[in-house]
Amino acid sequence: MINLNKPIQLSQQRLESFLNRINQATVNPEILSTILEEFSITLEEFDQQQQESVTRNNASDSELQHYRELFECTSEAYFVTNLTGEIHTANPAASIMLNISPTYLIGKPLTVFVAESHRKAFRNQLQQVRTSSQSMGWDVQLQPRHREPFPAAIAVSPIRDNHRNLTGLRWLISDISQRQQAEALRQELAEQHELSELKSRFLSTVSHEFRTPLTTILSSSEMLERYSDRLSPERKAVHFQKISQSVDYMTQLLEDILIYSKADAEKLEFNPTVVNLSEFCQTLVEDLHLEAANQERIQFKCNDDNICGNFDPKLLRQILSNLLTNALKYSPNGEPVDFELNREENQAILLIRDRGIGIPANDQVHLFEPFHRAQNTGTINGTGLGLAIVKKAVDLHQGMISVQSEIDIGTTFTVNLPLLNNAKKF
Ligand code: ADP
């Protein structure tokens, strides 16, 4: 509203001075004409100000009308409540959303339209809005009258008086069921996409990994068949060995696929028993050293001979032999591999450090995904299943695994396993 007091007061003052001067005047026509001129200017100014004020009032009326229309016609529900959430004003969309006539809405606490399971959280949020006096937003399950509950997004902001005191709350509530359905659909599609990608990675890995040993078996058996009479016993032994190695490799691959698919379906058996980890690791290293290719490259260190805990020996072997054989395999120049076992409070810390080819940073984030192989593996064979199995086995022990790696410097895997009897039971 425009304040007209000032121009009116000014005009009054001028009028008074005009009358005074008329009274005092010795009817000098010159003075009289000046006074009349001044008076007419004053009247003109007054008229102009009044016109401006009318224009401004019209503008704010139309603005008000504009907001009223928005409030009435929008599809979003608007409420004004007091600080405890009691409804003072609601727009038609609010009454449609809550399936209740506007007159019944007024005076009701907004909480009664929140699904019972969400009320406690809603009250806590309301309390938070009051104490922080900040605008806030959250999702909630609304319960309209005689209808199914639905998800809604709430945006609430404080209303203040001229002295900045909090006097009420303004609510904007939107139905997000469609948005949530779209999100669920998008997620389902993404999962389907991931599954089909996994299938194609599986098929390409399996066909690729099977082709090499099958070719070896075929060529060695052909040699044995065709040239049996001409081959020396040593050459024959070499071909038989190649065949048996290829069969072993394929069996191992199938075994890995089986273990991974069981783990993925949460069907991996977990049978923990008390294991002396120090002895277990020592034996494993000796077994790995029996394989000629490994040439006693694993240097095992342990700060305690008696680190005992509840572990599944089969899965523990999967974890450690996968990490150790990787460390050997990805150090093609035959560098040694450090294997350390330490106890820290109630945890066993197992560290496997190599000085091999390293893992590119881009691949590190995908390491534990099945069939993922880093770009720098070159001709080193593998399926990308080992680490996925390791991760599942560590999870079953409620442990943690982490990796640090630098290209051409080396890789360190650290596994933390709790020693207390808190592993998951299946
Ligand atoms: P793979 O059968 O290919 O060795 P893994 O699941 O055991 O499969 O490992 C996944 C990928 O992680 C490997 O293909 C390799 O790229 C990378 N990787 C694992 N361990 C190491 C390591 N010690 N040094 C370098 N790269 C490694």
Number of helices: 11
Instruction: Give the C-alpha Rg.
Output: 42 Å
SSE run: HHEEHHHEEEHHEHEEHEEHHEE
Gap between N and C termini? 75 Å
The number of E-state strands comes to 12
Largest sheet: 5 strands, antiparallel
- Beta content: 15-25%
Q: Please state the structural category.
A: alpha+beta
Bound molecules: adenosine-5'-diphosphate
Oligomer: single chain
Shape: elongated
**Could you list the spans in which at least 5 consecutive residues all have pLDDT below 50?**
422-426
Strand arrangement within the widest β-sheet reads 2-1-5-4-3
Query: Helical content, roughly?
Result: 40-55%
Average pLDDT rating:
87
Describe the structure.
With 426 residues, the protein is an alpha+beta fold. It is 52% helix and 19% strand. The chain has eleven helices and twelve strands. The chain has helices at 5-24, 29-73, 92-97, 102-105, 116-132, 177-226, 233-264, 277-290, 313-329, 361-364, 386-396; strands at residues 77-81, 87-90, 136-142, 150-160, 166-175, 273-276, 298-302, 308-311, 337-344, 347-353, 400-406, 410-418. The strands form three sheets. A five-stranded antiparallel beta sheet has the order 2-1-5-4-3. A five-stranded mixed beta sheet has the order 7-9-10-12-11, with helices on one face. A two-stranded antiparallel ribbon has the order 6-8. A hairpin with a 5-residue loop joins strand 1 and strand 2. Helix 6 (177-226) runs antiparallel to helix 7 (233-264), helix 7 packs across helix 11 (386-396) and helix 9 (313-329) runs antiparallel to helix 11. Bound molecules: adenosine-5'-diphosphate. The site of adenosine-5'-diphosphate has 21 residues, from helix 9 and helix 11.
